[in-house]
Task: structure prediction
Amino acid sequence: MNFELLKQTALADLEKASDDVSREAWRVKYLGRKSDLSLFLRSLAEKTDQEKRALGPQANALRKELELRFHGAVVGGRYRPETFRFDVTQPGVKHETGHLHPLTLVSRDILRIFVSMGFDVATGPEIESAYYNFDALNIPAWHPARETMDTMWLDLPELQKPLPERGQTGYQYPAGYKFLLRTHTSPIQIRYMETHKPPFRMVVGDGRAFRNEATDARHEFQLNQLEGLMIGTDVSIATLRSVIHDFFRGFFGPDVAMRMVPSYYPFVEPGVDITVSCVGCKGKNRACKICGGLGWLEVAGAGMVHPNVLKAVALDPKKWQGFAFGFGVDRLAMTKYAIDDIRLFMSGDERFIRQF
Ligand code: DAH
Result:
């Protein structure tokens, strides 16, 4: 078989094939099952080893080359084999496009509002040491508040690193403390104060927190929080109220009402719970599913940063003061979109996810 001659004729023919029908004919003639080249390749099986070694590679290389040239001639998608008919009655191919998860949408909404008020966006590790999660937040080992967190401890060796110097960045862990999945995003307050000089205001952008919960419609073992912190020389509880109220107006709309109810968190003094008027029934429906007929929804804890917390990061409580808050992002999302079961968020159920 004269490979060179075959190549010359084949390529010359391909040049002349100017439409899909003639290109298909070319393909059958030179590359089809009954083409000279295919027949030759098949006949190699009966040849001696020596002949195989001599001719096989040449024949294969030619086949490759013709295939490449053929594909080159039909690129652009204009190629249609003769038998192809376009059926206009066939349904089209639907391309699914992804979209953002409702919790992501809500977090971005929230962050946008706080950023517009001059807040910096901070993050922190999801694996925390007991120092950041508890001790530095004025929750010592004996404190009953640790029990309410019902912690998920990790079986990791304790790191032997010293406490970070002020101004140092990166995730640093003090020595001698056990690790856990963070039970709230408040430890990022400590990390932020260790690495930034006041005055400042910050919110946490990736607020996953973990607790050992018996799950139900309002409780999930993984929850999302929005932590905030503002420190200055003249930041008062009135500042807290006005910042949160502005946030609610941006998030829920102009006629939302809010309340601050006294509460207790070890890392603030005084501490409050923040409630909003129910967006579902505006307090007018005793059978409302969203607020349970109360007319108010509890969405955050907050308060003035405790002096012990400021001391833990070497800030003088006589000079610096400020507030902190922690929102339940899932609760905010449930309120805004009238979702009545928190477990839906992480269920992976597309019937739920597709609605947003
Ligand atoms: N960390 C608290 C929790 O998970 C929420 C919280 C309350 C955060 C008061 C705060 C705060 O920053 O000031 O229950």
